[in-house]
């Protein structure tokens, strides 16, 4: 099927009092991808997710999940999506297995088709199936939320800041599970403040700022938009004065024999930068470079959109 997993067209939301959280947002989430939805705090990401979940009424526009319009076919749309919100919400007096069984019942999943224990084992919670949920650690509660969102086997899974407050080991376990779900055909939409995660995981990324869509590109394309590159050059003697050259966008001495030079790779190359240092009479002892990453692009785009 070529139809988008999520199709959003002209989506707008203005809250009472005049705050415009979303302003004519349009994009598709392709089926089978891990799709990043990024933006600063207050950009409108959670409002968009809550509209898809049926928790917030849109002001204008339309949205469809797995081909089902959220207005015309709300039951089918909700059955096609699982959402893990930032807030951890479940009854602390139920056990994890009870939590999943109740959630499956709410979605009308027949007892013979339920996968509650399978989901708990997959999330590393098999040994906690019958413990009170309130006794779980923060990371375990977060993983229980993911399992809860998957009880009805939705083709689309939305993870809203899923690794907030989770340690590195649990974060890696969660991403391994998400990659596994994606390999099985589940479309994943991810919001995160850990930009290195988005860069490593996502096939495509959309960026929202102040309610507007300011980017929607394959991850590699977005990273390629950053033209600044940093090169650290260690020379053979102490640097008496920081050299100047038109090919340096920025240069600073980080220790007596090392220069940190920023240049635009669309205007000059590393060879020209090193040649400029050589012409100053310095012998080059060591060179290290840092490529631009998603964080650089994110900051440049959001600053430009203000």
TrEMBL record:
Listed name of the protein: ABC transporter ATP-binding protein
PANTHER family: ABC TRANSPORTER ATP-BINDING PROTEIN, ABC-TYPE MULTIDRUG TRANSPORT SYSTEM, ATPASE COMPONENT
Superkingdom assignment: Bacteria
Residue ranges constituting the ABC transporter domain according to the UniProt record: 6-235
Signal peptide range in chain numbering: none
Keyword entries, A-Z: ATP-binding, Nucleotide-binding, Transport
One term of GO molecular function: ATP binding
Entry-linked InterPro entries: AAA+_ATPase, ABC_transporter-like_ATP-bd, ABC_transporter-like_CS, ABC_transporter_ATP-binding, P-loop_NTPase
Annotated organism of origin: Sphingomonas baiyangensis
């Amino acid at each position: 099927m070529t139809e988008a997993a999520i199709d959003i067209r002209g989506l707008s939301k203005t809250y009472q009092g005049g705050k415009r959280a979303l302003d004519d947002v349009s994009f598709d989430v392709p089926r089978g991808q891990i799709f990043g939805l990024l933006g600063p705090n207050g950009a409108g990401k959670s409002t968009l997710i809550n509209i898809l979940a049926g928790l917030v009424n849109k002001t204008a526009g339309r949205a469809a999940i797995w081909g089902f319009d959220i207005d015309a076919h709300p039951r089918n749309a909700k059955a096609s999506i699982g959402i893990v919100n930032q807030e951890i919400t479940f009854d602390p007096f139920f056990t994890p297995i009870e939590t999943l069984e109740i959630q499956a019942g709410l979605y009308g999943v027949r007892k013979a088709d339920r996968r509650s224990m399978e989901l708990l084992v997959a999330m590393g919670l098999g040994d906690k199936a019958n413990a009170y949920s309130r006794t779980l650690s923060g990371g375990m509660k977060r993983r229980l939320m993911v399992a809860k969102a998957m009880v009805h086997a939705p083709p689309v899974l939305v993870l809203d800041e899923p690794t907030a407050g989770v340690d590195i080991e649990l974060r890696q376990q969660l991403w391994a599970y998400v990659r596994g779900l994606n390999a099985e055909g589940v479309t994943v939409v991810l919001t995160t403040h850990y930009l290195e995660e988005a860069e490593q995981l996502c096939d495509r990324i959309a960026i929202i700022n102040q309610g507007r869509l300011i980017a929607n590109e394959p991850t590699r394309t977005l990273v390629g938009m950053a033209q600044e590159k940093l090169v650290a050059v260690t020379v053979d003697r102490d640097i008496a004065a920081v050299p100047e050259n038109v090919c340096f966008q920025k240069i600073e001495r980080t220790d007596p024999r090392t220069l940190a030079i920023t240049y635009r790779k669309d205007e000059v190359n590393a060879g020209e930068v090193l040649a400029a240092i050589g012409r100053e009479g310095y012998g080059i002892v060591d060179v290290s470079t840092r490529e631009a990453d998603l964080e650089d692009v994110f900051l440049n785009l959001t600053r430009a959109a203000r």
